[in-house]
Please model this.
Amino acid sequence: MSLAELKHGAVALPENERRELAAYLLQIGRERNQAWCDETSRRMQEMDAGKKITQSEFERRVGLDEG
Model:
């Protein structure tokens, strides 16, 4: 199947399936990126060791809090 055929097929998908396809393609890219895998592994180890933040702290850090 050619890239043009894939693009044509993607356009015809319902929105929810296009989102799922986009997420799948991003995941494939991440899995093939060793630096991303290493960083994810490091962060998971930190979380397993108890280094976590609360939902409200996360929202504050990314600017989603009301304050």
